[in-house]
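Lab notebook, design round three. We kept the backbone fixed and only want residue identities now. Task for the bench partner: fill in a sequence for the structure below.
Input structure tokens:
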């Protein structure tokens, strides 16, 4: 059974579409696998962040990209936020924004 996938809003889709080409290609390949096989692809591709938040982990010669998502009501994945990492540690503000959007998506979902 397949999953459906959507973006929290158009700004999130545009933000990710602006990633460097290599990171974007890897991201798209992973999201296709998620739609076909489910949201938990396991490390190193996806990782649980706790309390229902997950991340897509993308690495390439252009850098490292992260996209946060949640799985709402069964087979529905929502991409909440994406960014290209500038430091080893994921900034707390990026995770906080994803968690805020996840609460909004769950409330409106």
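Proposed sequence:
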């Amino acid at each position: 059974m397949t999953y459906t996938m959507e973006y929290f809003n158009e700004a999130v889709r545009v933000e990710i579409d602006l990633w460097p080409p290599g990171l974007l290609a890897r991201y798209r390949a992973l999201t296709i696998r998620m739609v076909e096989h489910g949201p938990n692809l396991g490390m190193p591709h996806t990782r649980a962040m706790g309390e229902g938040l997950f991340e897509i982990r993308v690495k390439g010669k252009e850098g490292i990209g992260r996209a946060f998502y949640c799985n709402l009501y069964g087979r529905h994945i929502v991409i909440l936020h994406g960014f290209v990492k500038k430091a080893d540690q994921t900034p707390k503000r990026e995770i906080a924004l994803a968690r805020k959007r996840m609460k909004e998506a769950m409330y409106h979902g």
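Keep this in mind before ordering anything: The first strand starts at residue 4 and ends at 7.
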